Please model this.
Amino acid sequence: MAERSLFSVIGEMNYDGLIADLEPAVTVGGATIRKLGSAATLKRGTILAMSSGSAGDGKLVVLGNTAASNETLTPYGILCEDIDVGTAADVKAAVYLSGAFDPDKVTVKTSYDITAADIDALRVRNIRFVEVSD
Model:
């Protein structure tokens, strides 16, 4: 009979510091990310905004994109894992819908700065930012 070991390494986790606290509890949901004009990999920790309004489609885009006419983009959640988004089809993704996150670990569209209104909109959704000291 072969000997079995209960003490072997079967994988490892690398802590990236995105989640900064246990309260509020982290919740994850599924959402649809709108296809892009040019394919890209969206990184874990990307803040996403929901498209609404009369021209809205209920899909997510990276926070900092410019809204179309009659479209409103409202901060919605934070991307759970890296995901490739192409130009042909929308993509289903896992999104953090609540939790405490390190503001130094989240990203938005290049050259966009997160505003106080963005932070307030995320706080309403039970997403808060917690400064983490090293």
In short: The mean pLDDT is 92. The radius of gyration is 18 Å. The helical segments are 116-124.
